[in-house]
Automatic annotation (TrEMBL):
It comes from the Bacteria. Catalyzes two activities which are involved in the cyclic version of arginine biosynthesis: the synthesis of N-acetylglutamate from glutamate and acetyl-CoA as the acetyl donor, and of ornithine by transacetylation between N(2)-acetylornithine and glutamate. This is Arginine biosynthesis bifunctional protein ArgJ. The active site is at T200. It is found in: Cytoplasm. PANTHER family: ARGININE BIOSYNTHESIS BIFUNCTIONAL PROTEIN ARGJ (PTHR23100), ARGININE BIOSYNTHESIS BIFUNCTIONAL PROTEIN ARGJ, MITOCHONDRIAL (PTHR23100:SF0). Substrate binds at T163, K189, T200, E286, N412, S417. It holds the Pfam family ArgJ. Belongs to the ArgJ family. The lineage of its organism: Bacteria, Bacillati, Bacillota, Clostridia, Lachnospirales. Pathway: Amino-acid biosynthesis; L-arginine biosynthesis; L-ornithine and N-acetyl-L-glutamate from L-glutamate and N(2)-acetyl-L-ornithine (cyclic): step 1/1; Amino-acid biosynthesis; L-arginine biosynthesis; N(2)-acetyl-L-ornithine from L-glutamate: step 1/4.
Amino acid sequence: MAVRRKEADTMEIIKGGVTAAKGFEAAAVAAQIKYQGRTDMALIYSEKPCKVAGTFTTNVVKAAPVRWDRQIVENKQKSQAVIINSGIANACTGVEGMMYCQETAKEAAKVLGIEEAGVLVGSTGVIGMQLPIDRIKAGISELAKVKKAGIESGTEAAKAIMTTDTKKKEVAVQFQIGDKTVTIGGMAKGSGMIHPNMCTMLAFITTDAVISRKALQKAMSNDVEETYNMISVDGDTSTNDTALLLANGMAGNKKIKKGTPEFEVFQEALHYVNETLAKMMAGDGEGATALFEVKVVGAKTKEQAKTLAKSVVCSNLTKAAIAGHDANWGRILCAMGYSGAKFDPEKVDLYFESTAGKLQIIKDGTAVDYSEEKATEILSQEKVTATADLKAGEAEATAWGCDLTHGYIDINADYRS
């Protein structure tokens, strides 16, 4: 059953993920790459070749899959398949790691009957370990045998790419372009090594839209700045961060081009998918108990608002206070102060909000007479929002993160074992 969004009559949220759009299939298998007793390889497959857009990590240390996929995007090569493994990142693996990307593509091309040059790859997990390529190849053969359309296969693929994630992350929407129904669906993984510097995880988005390559890349590149680049869990930008957007054109709509009303509709739908996945990752941060949302409103410029929001959401002291359900507003104002953005602290109003209510904490930079008990109740919910009003303009921005708990240390102290 589709659920209509109040703020956009042209778009519906539907059940599903990467297989929601026409012509896309998926599969998951247990290849024993590193994990035992669970699936750890996934396939996304399109009946028809797809145009591909992508954004990648800005980390100087780039994993082999990142370099492999960038070549495909930059060379404007069409793709019909993405092979993803969890458990081993294939990062810092030298020439051998790149050779394994090629061998993965070659095997996928052989068993799927597609062009080798367009096979995309994704890896996530421990850095520095070499992939067990024989298991990868065997896994690809199994994936090809069990791939299918439908919601279930997409969900299984979303589960297979998880590492320290505690829940699958998928979303899909539909909207109209002329008299044609267009679908965008996606899945992502991300729980640790999450920091806003494009792109902060693995995300795979599929659409059946007919769209120009330039419009596809522009839509994705523009949107990561407002979604994936506005989340942080621990301040670590990964070696493997990748977001891919594949369009197979099977919706049959009039081609979407940059600068048209249709492009704006596509961008809005893509934004919802990306933002939803981004918030899922932020809320599922390693050891997290709450999604921490920071809104900066009343700013002079968008850039000022973004800088301030990201500074607060990245503050370990603030994140620890959220974990302790402590309305330690001084940490928020402090994080804003060292962000590098100029503002007048004596004009700032600050509010905490959740399903338990909304409470003003400071007015014009100083504390108001608020109830600590009510503040603790508000901060004890699964989603907590801090809103800072600069009272200096009309610009605003939102960033997402999570609380910082002992669980984060427990997970990362022995991640390799």
